[in-house]
Amino acid sequence: MTTDSYPDERDFQPHLLEPEDQDSQYAPTTGYHGRTPASSCGLSPSPDYHSEHDLEDLCQHEPERPRLLQLSEWHDGMLSDELPANCIQYAIEWKVTVNKKVLSRDTEEDVVLTPSAYWPKTLKGKLERLLEGNIPRKGRVRSDDTSIAVSVNDRSQRDLMKRFDHLDIDWTAVEKQLLKWGELFRRGKKLRLSITFKYVEDDSLHKITSGRVEKRGRSSVTKRMLNERDAQLDAEENVSGQESIWRGVYNPMRCPSSSCHLGPHCWQDPHGKKHYKLRSHQ
Q1: Within a domain: residue 141?
Q2: Positions of the region Disordered (predicted)?
Q3: Percent of the chain with pLDDT over 90
Q4: How confident is the model over 73-96, as pLDDT tens digits?
Q5: What is the pLDDT of residue 78?
């Protein structure tokens, strides 16, 4: 038998087959055709998805995380269908108290702006107009503190309580809590801010109107004169944009003692420390 009649060695050594012949012996993996699909959204390939395009479609349809609308995205008269689909909405229930007595209550519904933007743009102006309309004279009350409760109608979640001096509100923790409950909002839960603006009467004004200084008739006249003076000084400040000179004149004579009943202004003897009442001509 000649050597030409023997079978080729490659017939008995599959590992020596040419690459194209070797590949032809193994069925390709269904859908991948010899390559591993990449996933841009961090999902692992699954037998349920047969190509990279399926994974890309899944990433595109994945809902975005809930967020708060920024002022740069807002415009007056913005309609609900213009809002981003992942925009968080909440309600603000706010009230104003003076010496712990409720002066007014109101509710802001379906708020979409982030609280740190809604406060200076809308709510602060409403608060100031409310005080101007219900307090007879500017400066009669002063802000004491502001308390905020952030809540959601889900029994498994506890309210977040925050307190701030005067109107110095730091909205960071409030907004962080709203974002934390973003998924609950997406499931249909209601988010709410309950804000209480607490005011107290000015002590100096209380001395004027207490009626303990003089007889009722003279006290009424004094009160009227002081109101007229304050109205004139307010007008001067509005025109000039600066504090009135007369307020600077009155301030040095304002009595600092809470036990003095001679009026908001008096003269104190620097030697004997005795207080003397100031008359109208003075």
Answers
A1: yes
A2: 1-55
A3: 40
A4: 988 888 877 888 899 999 999 999
A5: 82
Q: Which of 175, 201, 227 is the last residue of a domain?
A: 201
Q: Which amino acid is at 238?
A: N
Q: Which pLDDT belongs to residue 169?
A: 96
- The structure tokens listed for 122 are 């809308």
Residue pair 157/183 in contact (Cβ under 8 Å)? The answer is no
Is 195 found in the same domain as 238? no
Residues 197, 124 share a domain: yes
CA 158 to CA 197: how far, in whole Å? 22
The whole-angstrom distance between residue 37's C-alpha and the CA centroid of its chain comes to 44
Measure the CA–CA gap between 128 and 119, rounded to whole angstroms: 12
Tell me if 87 sits within 8 A of 69, measured CB to CB. yes
**Residue 111: is it exposed, middle or buried by C-beta count within 10 angstroms (0-12/13-18/19+)?**
buried
CA dihedral 116→117→123→128, nearest 10 degrees, is 90
- Domain match, 208 and 197 both: no
Residue 179 placed within a domain: yes
Q: Are strands 266-268 and 275-277 parallel, antiparallel or unpaired?
A: antiparallel
Displacement of CA 94 from its chain's centroid (Å): 13
The reported pLDDT for the residue numbered 121 is: 94
238 and 126 inside one domain: no
Give me the CATH number covering residue 92: 3.10.20
